[in-house]
Amino acid sequence: MADAVVCEEVGRVYRTPAGDVAAVRTVSLRIAEGSMVALVGRSGSGKTTLLGLIGGLDRPDAGRIEACGFEVSALDRGDLARYRRGTVGFVFQAAGLVPLMTATENVALALELAGEPPDRAASAAREALRQVGLEERAKHRTYELSGGEQQRVAIARALVKRPPLLIADEPTGQLDSETAAGIVALLRSAATAGTTVLVATHDEALATTADRILHMDDGAVSEAAVERSP
Asked: Residue 219 has what pLDDT?
């Protein structure tokens, strides 16, 4: 199986008035296509920074990152934007929806920004919402949706582009256990359908659903990865 993500000696240092902070320390890892990998570790261990580097939201100070055929660490600003738009789906702890837009409009926006005509984007958005069980809530605005519903809209928005890579940062962190279980099932389904899913989490139920668990501590990823059955 081919690798979807390759990190070679990746490092990221933040410079602060109090001194340098090494958020990611010489991380090397490989993630197979179509797998679901959970990145676990305490708050401040570097999980979010590493996800941001792989997703092209930040740049490493050292090392090399390749994802889905792109040498992410070498892309210029314009190519990085195109990589994020066309290759990566993002899901964060906060859904990040546009408050006055409907669920359909929020999901369609991801396609429209990628150049899809509005009518086709809306049609695809409705289908994506159906797949996450929100067909009947498609015309509701963000503020009319529960936290769990908003997070499902965010997942639909991330997946509607059919991205080869899905990056999720604490997607169940603010949800009750029942709603979180639904989110976990959606992420697992995405991986089963062929999307590579990389998720940072404190949620044990989510982590144990992954194919692999990687441990991160003080900016370093442990060499020991726990393999899980698909």
From this structure: 94
Q: Which long-range contacts (CB under 8 A, 24 or more apart) does 136-143 make?
A: 137/103, 138/102, 138/103, 138/104, 139/102, 139/103, 139/104, 140/102, 140/103, 141/99, 141/100, 141/101, 141/102, 141/103, 142/95, 142/97, 142/98, 142/99, 142/100, 142/101, 142/103, 142/106, 143/99
In three-state secondary structure terms, 172 is: coil
Bridge partner residues of 168 (DSSP): 91, 199
Pick from 230, 217, 162, 229: nearest CA to 39: 217
* Residue 87, pLDDT above cutoff 70: yes
pLDDT reading at 228 higher than 70: no
Quote the CA–CA distance of 222 and 41 in Å, as a whole number: 10
Contact 206, 36 (CB under 8 A): no
DSSP SS3 for 177: helix
pLDDT in tens, 89-116: 999 888 889 999 999 999 999 899 888 9
What does the block give as tokens for 229?
A: 């059955």
Name the fold adopted by 1-87+163-224: Rossmann fold (3.40.50)
Distance, CA of 97 to CA of 75 (rounded, Å) = 28
- The total of other beta-carbon atoms located within 10 Å of residue 22's CB is 16
CB 68 within 8 A of CB 229: no
pLDDT of 183? 85
- Structural domain spans, the chain: 1-87+163-224, 97-161
Cα(27)–Cα(221) distance, integer angstroms: 6
In tens, the pLDDT along 9-53 reads 999 999 988 888 899 999 999 999 999 999 999 988 999 999 999
